[in-house]
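Long-time lurker, first post.

We've been arguing in lab meeting about whether zinc ion would sit comfortably in this protein at all. Half the group thinks yes, half thinks no, and nobody has a model to point at. So I'm putting the question to the forum: if I give you the sequence and the SMILES, can you give me back a predicted structure of the complex? Inputs are below. Any interpretation is welcome too.
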Amino acid sequence: MAITGATVIDPGTGARRRDVTVLVRGDRIAAIGSARDVRVPAGAQVVDGRGKFVVPGLIDSHVHGSGQEQIDLPLFLANGVTTVRDMNGQPLLYQWRDRVEAGTLSGPRSVVASAIVDGDPSLLAGLGAPYVEVGDPAAARAEVHRQLAAGADFIKVYVRLTPQAYHAIADECRRLGVTFVGHTPDAIPLAEASAAGQRSFEHVYTGWFDTAGAEPEIRRRLAEIRVGGGEYNSWFNQTHPLEVLAARTFDPARARAVFGRLAADRAHQVPTLTQHRVFDLPESVAQHQDRLRYLPAATRDGWQAQLEQVYLAGRTEQAAAEHRELFAARKRWIGAAHRAGVSVLAGTDTGTAFVFPGFSLHDELANLVEAGFSPLRALQAATSVPAQFLNLPDVGTVRRHAIADLAVLDADPLADIRNTRRLHAVVVRGRLIDADRRDHLLRDVEAVAAAGTLPARLAGCACAPVSVAG
Ligand SMILES: [Zn+2]
Ligand SMILES: [Zn+2]
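Top reply:
Settle the argument with this. Predicted structure of the protein with zinc ion, as C-alpha cells:
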C-alpha cells in the first residue's frame, strides 16, 4: 500500500517532509520519497495523502486491559493507538500480547507488567485486581522470578512496600537486567527510587513529596499512616492533605536537585493527567458522554457508581477547591520536570473510571500541552520517547524499514495538538484501516457493547480510589 502526496512528520527528529510518498510492503515501510523517486506498484492500495499529515501510530504508556477484546482492542486501533504498555499483568493480557504478536489477534502490540507487587498488607487486598504481597526481602526476590516466569515483561512496584523489600526487588531486577517501574512507595523518596533503578513513575501524587519545602513534615506524617489490607480509600484520604501540603510548598531549589537526578538516571514520569482530571475535576466527565456508547452497560454503571459514591460523595466545597488546586499544581509540576529535562511518557490509565481506550490518549496529549509542552514534545511523549524506553526501535518513528504503524491526520498536529483526533486513516503493521473501515470498527464496538453478552471484566486497575463494596 502507499500514501501519496502527504506531509510526513517524524517526531524523533522533528523533521517534516512535504509532498512525499510512503510505500509500505508487508508490515514495514519500504520507501519514503518524492513521487519521482518512489514508484507505486500497480495494484497497490493507495491513500490520497494530499493535505494530510502522517505521524507514527501512538503509544499509550499506562493502560489496564479490561479483558474484553472486542472493546479495548478496536477502540485503540480506531484511535490510532498501535502500542500500549499494560500496567497490571494477568494471564489473559499475556495471551493478548502473544496473539497480537503472532498475528492471530487484531490489536495494538503490548508490553505487559507483572501483577502489582505491594507490601504486606496490600492496599489492593479484596479489590479484585491482581496483586501480590511481599513482606521481606527473600519473598520480594522470589516474587520477581515468579512474575517473570508467569510472562511479565517488567516488574511493577506499589506504594506499601517496605524499604527492605523494595531494595531487594531493585537489586534482583538489576541482577537480571529486568526493568522495574510503578508507583513511588510511601517509604521511598523519589530520588532514592530513581537511584535504585526504578525507570518509570506513575501519576503525579506520592512522587512530588521530594520537591516540597515541607518534605520533612510530610515524611514524618507518611510514616505514621496505618492502613490495613484493602483500605485503599483510607490511604487516599490520609495522603490527600500531604498532597495539598506538597503542592503549596513546592520548592524550586529542591525540584532542581530531584529533577536533575531523574534526568541523569533517564527515569521517566508518566503523569496520567487524564486520570487525575477525572478524580480532581469529576464534573469534567460530562464532556465525554458520547464515548460511553462504546462501553458495556456494566462498565458504564460501575463508573457512574464510582463517580457518585466515591469521587463525589462527601466531597465538601473545601475538598473540591483543594482538588482543583491540586490538578493545576500537578500540571505545573510535570511542566517543570519536563523543562528540567525529565523524560515524560503519555499514559492515560484506561480502566479507571471515565478513562477510555484510545480516545483518552488524545486528551492526554492536550493535557501535556496545557502543562507547557510544545505540540512536538507532546507527540514525542506518545511516540519516539516511549518507543525508546520500551526498547522498540522500529516503532514510534516514520522512516524506511520501520514498522508501518501510522496515523494519517486531516490537519497538522504541530499547529494544534488536538488535530491528532482528526484521524483520516490508521495503518497497523502495514494493514490499512481507512475511513470506512474505521467507521465499521467503531460501529461494531457499539453493537458488541449494546448486546451485553461480554465476558466479565478483569478487575485490572487500582490507580484511583475505588468502591470497596463488592
Ligand atoms: Zn497506578
Ligand atoms: Zn493505572
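For your lab meeting: Residues 317-339 form the longest helix (23 residues). The mean pLDDT is 94. Whichever side wins, do check it experimentally.
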